[in-house]
Amino acid sequence: MYVMSIDAGTGSIRAVVFDLGGRQLGIAQQEWHHFSEPGVAHSMSFDCKANWQIALACIVHAIADARIDAKQIKAISATSMREGIVVYDREGEELFALANVDARAGAEVAWIKQEYPELERHFYERSGQTLALGALPRLLWLKRHRPKLYEKAAWVHMISDWVLYKLSGVFTSEPSNAGTSGIFSLKERRWDAAMASRLGLKDDIFPEVVESGSVIGTLRPDVADVTGLDPQTKIVAGGGDVQLGSAGLGVVRQGECAVLGGSFWQQIVNIEGATVDPTMNLRINPHVIKGLSQAEGITFFSGIVMRWFRDTFCQEERREAERLGVDVYSYLESLAAAVPVGSYGIVPIFSDTMKYGRWYHAAPSFLNLSLETTSKAAMFRALQENGAMVSMFNLEAVFALTQTQPQTITFAGGGAKGALWAQILSDVTGREVRIPRVIEATALGGAMAAAVGLGVFADLVEASQALVAWERTYSPDGQNHRLYQEVAQRWRRLYDAQLALVDQGLVDSMWRAPGV
């Protein structure tokens, strides 16, 4: 008996097969891309038709990779990038879908702030979300700019819910991802439709909310025909990638802490359910564990910037890695390990710290390159140091809010595959960093939800305690930590100076939240 987890991330989708002991048996992954809609500035559409075909292919290939009979898979759950939404008509056809960092609704955010100056704070106190990535401005954009589509809108939910709907034909949502829509009550763990009606939006388009691990249906016959899966396969509510990833890391108790290093990096600490940040700099999301929420910092594009650097500058290194039979990132880490702390003074200007209430980035750049010491290995290490430093700043803000000081950080996702980035994170933060045996923690969290749906475990806490094991641990080097404190403060000052260039209109922001 096996389970499958489908992980629909920002940069790729994967299907992963697990046994009931949490052992990964097969995986298939394919990169996908989200494109701007013609004539719509800052848009990032989600192509439901094309992406569903990619999802189906990953399901089939993961089963083949696992070398099992597809009918032995008894339950499937799903996780996804958060904030992305899908809108449907009454027949269940997708009308409109957006990926997570779609920023088309800037004018709508500005209008809401102008017409209702206190509304964002009021909504934040209830939902833990600002308007920056929320669904309300996007739905308002749809009403204003695509009124015929808006008139047909009968349902809305998140991309992980979309995966489960495509598998089961049942509309549901669960708290951890629906909470990132900003139309949700942290305290009550349900849609807060009054938020929509306050802005003149439909308030009857939100599906039933069920907790992660709940069975929502069985597999649609047409999907069974394409994949070879049993039509009686249970389809089980999953969650947001960070929250299910936290379960997959064993971060299920109040005060525990993790860094998830994927396309985006998230730094999270488990907190009591309805706590919010008075500064509004941090977002607060419902956890997949009932009764808990998570205070979260986000580092934009850390993994995507690495992919850009690999694809743009490292063709020679890719060929050499292929010749050696190793992953190109592992090969680049082996080169970067010889570069000293601080990467010869190279300063990457990409991701910034979390400023949820007024969030925009400087222009992407490398500062302080040297003709004598700059190399691709040094630039690669500088990017890794940048990701770790922003994580440190975000975690410090979360610790200040929660009055906690965890001494151990759990690190997972693609960033944790190699040894160097984990050691840099430990040295920068001055904390022990532990790596789980299954670093694809988000997929494992989905497998846990599926196993709960089968009745193998009573809940996700029990599943996490049974299935999470540790691969290796990194301890901070005291001298490196002291050096990184100087590097981090210098980076902070330089980043602020680069933001000032955006403010002066001299360069373009890498990313700007709608309405900022």
Describe the structure.
This protein has a seven-stranded mixed beta sheet, with helices on both faces. The protein has a domain of 248 residues: Nucleotidyltransferase, domain 5, CATH 3.30.420. The longest helix is centred in the last third of the chain and has 27 residues. The protein is 40% helix and 20% strand. By secondary structure, it is α+β, with helices and mostly antiparallel strands. The chain is built from 18 helices and 20 strands.
Strand and helix map with partners:
Elements (H helix, E strand, L loop, with lengths): L1 E7 L3 E8 L4 E8 L16 H19 L6 E8 L4 E4 L5 E5 L7 H10 L3 H9 L7 H11 L1 H6 L2 E4 H10 L6 H4 L5 E2 L4 E2 L1 H6 L16 E4 L2 H7 L6 E7 H8 L8 E5 L3 E8 L10 E4 L5 E8 L2 H12 L1 H10 L3 H9 L10 E3 L15 E3 L8 H27 L5 E5 L7 H10 L2 E5 L4 H14 L5 H8 L2 E5 L3 H26 L13
Parallel strand pairs: 1-4, 4-11, 12-18, 18-19
Antiparallel strand pairs: 1-2, 2-3, 5-6, 5-7, 8-9, 10-11, 12-13, 13-15, 14-15, 16-17, 19-20
Helix pairs in contact: 2-4, 10-16, 11-14, 12-13, 13-14, 14-15, 15-18, 16-17
Please tag this protein with its features.
single chain, about 525 residues, alpha+beta, Nucleotidyltransferase, domain 5, 7-stranded mixed beta sheet, 6-stranded mixed beta sheet, 20 strands, about 40% helix
